[in-house]
Amino acid sequence: TPTRPAQVAVCPSAGIGHLTPFLRLASMLTSNSCSVTLIIIRPTLSFAEANQINTFLSTHPHITASEFHILPCEPSSNSNIQDPFLLQYDAVSRSAHLLVHHLATLSPPPSAVFSDLMFASGINKPLYDLGIPNYNVITSSARFFSFMTSLTHLRVTRGDDVVIPGLAPIVGDDIPPIFSNTDHMFTRLIETSCRYLQDAKGIVLNSFDFFEPESISALQNGKVLAGLPSVFPVGPFIPYGSINGDNIPWLDNQPSKSVVYVSFGSKTVMSKDQIREIGDGLERSGLRFLWVIKTTVVDKEDKEELRDLLSEAFFENTKERGLILREWVNQEKILAHPAIGGFLTHCGWNSVMEAAQRGIPLLAWPLHGDQRVNAGEVEKAGLGIWERSWGWIGERLVKGDEIAMKIQEMMTSEKLRASATRVWDEATKAWEKNGSSRKMFETIIGDKVS
Ligand code: BUP
Fold first, then answer.
1. Which atom of ligand 1 is nearest to the CA of 16?
2. What is the pTM of this model?
3. How far, in Å, CA of 186 to CA of 169, rounded?
4. CA angle (151 as vertex; 75, 222 as ends), nearest 5
5. Which position among 116, 209, 299, 370 bears the catalytic label?
6. Which residues line ligand 1 (CB under 6 A)?
7. Which residue has the least CA distance to atom 23 on ligand 1?
8. DSSP 173
9. How confident is the model over 382-428, as pLDDT tens digits?
10. 102 Cα: distance to centroid of ligand 1 (angstroms)
11. Which of 76, 163, 241, 332 is the most core-located residue (most Cβ within 10 A)?
12. What ipTM goes with this model?
């Protein structure tokens, strides 16, 4: 007898780094005979998010959108926190209990839910009690997720390594200082959310066995945290075809694998001095480059004049081989372009998985959050190199000559290109028939369609 398609609700949290993987997952579920309702958080935080949602819905007419209005951000009770993303995560988490009622009003009601970790404290237990399987989707690396779950039972002391069963110790300097402050809103948020993981039906990771073997197996074997539900690494999540976005004709005229792509994600604001040194590094490297510069945290307006940031000489010397963009670009499409030969990145996890999918060698320069831990995974998997002595972006002024040397290493190392190509092969294999991620995904789908 034909089975009724599973009715699935997909619930992303705030920020493009959380939204993008959920859109990919929604698309993957639709392609596998699920009927998907996408929960859209209102208000959205940035134009980039709003645009991404609109484009996604217009290219996925079978997906139903359902708006969920969250409670207002509370800057007053988080008086020392300026970051709009952290305030929005807090608002999402405080609103999570309302999502259960919202989901109950959907018609037909969901037979399964895929939700961001930020919702866990409000929805995991009620959905469990209602018998609705809920999968918590993790938007970071398996290793950083292991760290987050450990906050439920260990205290982080600033600068000290963190020892988690089954994993090589996490170097103290790789952990953002806020996690040693148990009163910090974000630390409390992560810790509280992780306490509810046991009520989830499963944990979905945007990672794959080859890339993070140690963390994935430690999580799956219950070494990291006893009582965790099944862990399903189903990455890299499959792009949904935003590949059809804007063209960059300049790229089409560049030789194969010759261009360094430089982007530090959607939230990076760098000092003018550091921007100048990066410019100097690119100039000194003699290489072709495509550089996306952002000077505002939320992407509404980038007003700073490029001429105030970089010198006349820089523009003159690089005009034949460099392109700078200020606007939102289609990164997925850029990484798929044959002219791209390397990527200087902050190591946001989506960027890492997108590069893995294309075998693009990385030069890691983390900015904040999970990104130093992610950079370690990039290095171990052979996808990229990382100059630890540069610290977090902004920690010290890294000079142009150091940057030039590392960029050249990334672009010319045969060893690195070969190991990045190996990652690409393995990422591809993970999604082929009997591949590790495909099998995991089929298990999830098989459990739900009944
Ligand atoms: Br910037 C930028 N175009 O111009 P991450 C980013 N992206 O398509 P983040 C674009 O946004 P966190 C642009 O491909 C990736 O899918 C990019 O996610 C896309 O970094 C996503 O890499 C960015 O995880 O998040 O957003 O800075 O700080 O949380 O790591």
1. 26
2. 0.96
3. 22
4. 140
5. 116
6. 16-17, 20, 263, 265-267, 292, 328-332, 348-351, 354, 369
7. 17
8. G
9. 999 999 999 999 999 999 999 999 999 999 999 999 999 999 999 99
10. 28
11. 332
12. 0.97
